[in-house]
């Protein structure tokens, strides 16, 4: 009888332990989902920034072309030519800066994609672990019910005696 009680107590402790593990897994999944959401938001932000930089790059290319045409038309005026050359140099520097920024943004986007993929893999593994833990919990619960039934049957037999 004491062994059965000890077994019941052990089963209850095991059930509680699995419930704690299930809650921890659920919390971990929530944390990973939040991190994934943050990474997705970061990707959206970087994508928007990338689009803005591309638009600026196109705008700068357009401005550069316009400045080149203006330079050809006003080649007769030396001072105008110097001013346009300075502006052209500034635009080229801005273009280089934009290109560097675009490359950095693209690299960050790739890193974010890798991090998201890693987090998705971790999330998948956590979901599998959760499923496994739930299955084990159900098995333990069935064992507990069987042990409870057996205990009730033994108690009934003892009362009959």
UniProtKB/TrEMBL annotation:
Note down the stretches annotated as region Disordered: 47-91
Q: Mention any Pfam family matching this sequence.
A: Tropomyosin
Bilayer-spanning residue ranges:
none
Q: Where is the composition biased (Polar residues)?
A: 72-91
Q: Which domain of life is it from?
A: Eukaryota
**Record keywords: Coiled coil included?**
yes
Q: Identify the keywords attached in UniProt to this record, alphabetized.
A: Coiled coil
SUPFAM superfamilies the UniProt entry points to: Tropomyosin
For bias type Basic and acidic residues, the affected ranges are: 56-71
Q: Would the keyword Magnesium be found if you checked this record's keyword annotation? A: no
What is the protein name given in its UniProt record?
Tropomyosin
Say which species the protein is native to. Answer: Pichia kluyveri (Yeast)
């Amino acid at each position: 009888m004491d062994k059965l009680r000890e077994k019941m107590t052990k089963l209850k402790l095991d059930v509680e332990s699995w419930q704690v593990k299930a809650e921890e897994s659920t919390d971990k999944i929530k944390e990973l989902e939040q991190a994934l959401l943050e990474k997705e938001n970061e990707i959206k932000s970087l994508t928007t920034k990338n689009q803005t930089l591309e638009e600026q790059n196109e705008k700068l290319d357009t401005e550069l072309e316009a400045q080149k045409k203006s330079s050809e038309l006003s080649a007769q005026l030396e001072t105008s030519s110097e001013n346009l050359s300075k502006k052209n140099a500034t635009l080229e520097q801005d273009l280089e800066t934009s290109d560097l920024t675009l490359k950095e943004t693209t690299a960050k986007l790739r890193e974010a994609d890798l991090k998201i993929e890693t987090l998705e893999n971790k999330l998948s593994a956590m979901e599998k672990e959760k499923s496994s833990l739930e299955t084990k919990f159900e098995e333990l619960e069935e064992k507990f019910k069987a042990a409870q039934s057996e205990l009730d049957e033994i108690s009934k037999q003892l009362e009959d005696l």
